[in-house]
Amino acid sequence: MANDIISYHATLATSDREICERLQATITSGLPEATSKIWHGHPVWFLDGNPVVGYDRLKASVRLLFWSGQSFDEPGLRSEGTFKAAEARYTAADQIDEQDLRRWLAKARDIQWDYKNIVKRRGVLERLK
User: Fold this and answer.
1) What is the CATH number of the domain that holds 66?
2) How many domains does the chain have?
3) Cα 8 to Cα 63: distance, rounded to the nearest angstrom
4) Containing structural domain, residue 116
5) Strand 50-57's sheet: what is its strand order?
6) Which of 6, 68, 114, 119 is the most exposed place for a label (fewest CB within 10 A)?
7) What is the reported pTM?
8) Which residues lie across from 66 on neighbouring strands?
9) Are 77 and 125 in contact (CB under 8 A)?
10) What pLDDT score does 82 carry?
11) DSSP structural state of residue 80
């Protein structure tokens, strides 16, 4: 795990740290080819420079975000924002369904929208793969 993600976890309350460490472990094992770093203040995993999954601490929960998640057609993910992102929120580590998360990670690898070039394309997303 990247040192900056370890440092991010160290700033969290115990219950939030448990959620984030469980998410991190599952994401890392589910997407071993991905690179991770703190991006815009939060842990994010990238495939070929394209952000695919990350999480952040919100006021009342930890949000797991899939940049292309609206295309996954998964009932456990809710639309987020005006692009293709979808999220799940957790207030306790035992709320994380490992089977769902692993399925979502597989879809994150196979279903991607090109966020890496969104600025170059002036806000227009194109589907990859």
Assistant:
1) 3.90.1150.200
2) 1
3) 15
4) 3-128
5) 35-39, 42-47, 50-57, 62-66, 86-90, 78-79
6) 119
7) 0.91
8) 53, 86
9) no
10) 78
11) -
